[in-house]
Amino acid sequence: MTAGTTGMRLRRLTFGLSVLSALPVLTALAQSGAPAIRAVPDTVLGLDRIVVVVGDKPITQYDIQERIVAMQQSPSFKPPQNAEEFRKLALEIANMLVDEEVLVQKAIQLKVEVDDANLTPQVDRQIRDIRGRFGSEQEFRNELQKAGLGTVEEYRRFLMDQLRRNELQRRLLEKLRAEGKVPPVNVSQRQVEETFNRTRETLPRRPATVTFRQIVVAPKPNATARERARVKAESLLAEIKAGAEFERVAKRESADSMTREQGGDLGWSRRGTMVPEFERWMFGLRPGDLSPVIETVYGFHVIRVDRVQPGEVKARHVLVRAVVDTIDVQRARAEADSVARQWAAGVAFDTLVARHHDRLEETSILTPIPRDTALPPSYRDAFAGKKANDRVIFPIEGLDGHPKFVVAQLLSVEEGGEYTLADLKDRVRQQLVDEGSIRRLLDQLRKETFVRIQIDEPERIAPAGKP
């Protein structure tokens, strides 16, 4: 280890905060000021002391302390009170780090690859989320420095490295499972019961849930309004073809509030993320090409493709939406009432869906969904006090502030309560099978790798692989 590396690591510990716990720590900083954290007792040896070797990879006392500080962000964590308790915890953490490292080294050996381009959006989201909790950009940067996290770019590189390691481990396990190389284990009913009983007091309450199916009726613009929108879209296309800058036209005219300020930029899109009519043109155009005016459920579009790479297209669009007026909204409400009457009279659900349903909405929610936490307020209010098989009509927010009308039938209504073994036995069993299989795999990989753990003094060597 070079002196420069040592200096950087010591600097990052100035305030007793770990880069591994940066997200919860910075959130706490933004909300209540820097927390005072003592990770280890004063009797612990120097931070640069190598305590673990995995293959040719050294792990230092600093790495152990990093993980302890990260664990401290959990309310259930009980910090060590003396040197002996620290050594016991450090040994547990050392073995965790060994498990992670043998997976990473095996992934590299098997040429498992991770494209950083796939990780960048997640890193960007994490940084944006934390930055948004501070009053200004400068305050965010100052707190990064105070927390020992360096500059924004240093923090970004660290997050990228951690995500890359996590993704290598995940993809390796996925690859080995697909190849049948994760050793199977058997789990008894007694093990399932013991695990459930041991953890039942920590389980949350089972939420009240519902399942339902619905027909959503959206207001439709009349023929005159649709024609006006189409003609306007044609005029914008002609303006762009005559030399107007696409981005300026989008900023001035597009009805898509999500992309208008970015000049209509849709970013990179894969197949299956847009409505079919839009995708057919977007994936059929070459870079720089313009589409004709096309119509989707959103309105009329002009599309320009900017870049193309395998499986993805980067495009922009201008959206012109036909005006919906109060008469159109009244007509939609009457249509919803008619749907409800027909449904009650025995007309098939699928038939009503084909005739009336808004394609932008789902038709059936058949997996139980928590009523109080996962449903939008409009659904939660409409379903309150209702029983299975009840039908309700209610408005929800639609495009441009105009309501849509939902005709829904509740299929099941389950009240909340304590979880029972019957509720969770399959999940507990599968978790035990997964944990047991991965533990066997890790033990096998450790036997194939040189592993040396030295925590206690004078020397204590934990289970290791080949010398």
Describe the protein.
This protein has 467 residues and is of the alpha+beta class. It folds into three domains: 3-182 and 439-453, Triger factor/SurA peptide-binding fold (Orthogonal Bundle), CATH 1.10.4030; 209-220 and 325-414, Chitinase A, domain 3; 223-320, Chitinase A, domain 3. The protein is 47% helix and 16% strand. It has helices at residues 3-12, 22-32, 61-71, 83-109, 116-131, 137-146, 152-178, 189-199, 223-241, 246-253, 276-282, 326-344, 349-356, 377-383, 421-447, and strands at residues 50-54, 57-60, 209-217, 265-270, 294-296, 299-309, 312-320, 364-370, 391-397, 403-414, 451-453. The strands form three sheets. The chain has a four-stranded antiparallel beta sheet with strand order 8-3-10-9. Strand 1 and strand 2 form a beta hairpin. Helix 3 (61-71) packs across helix 4 (83-109), helix 4 packs across helix 7 and helix 4 (83-109) packs across helix 15 (421-447). The longest helix has 27 residues, at 83-109. It is globular and about 80 Å long. 24% of the residues are buried.
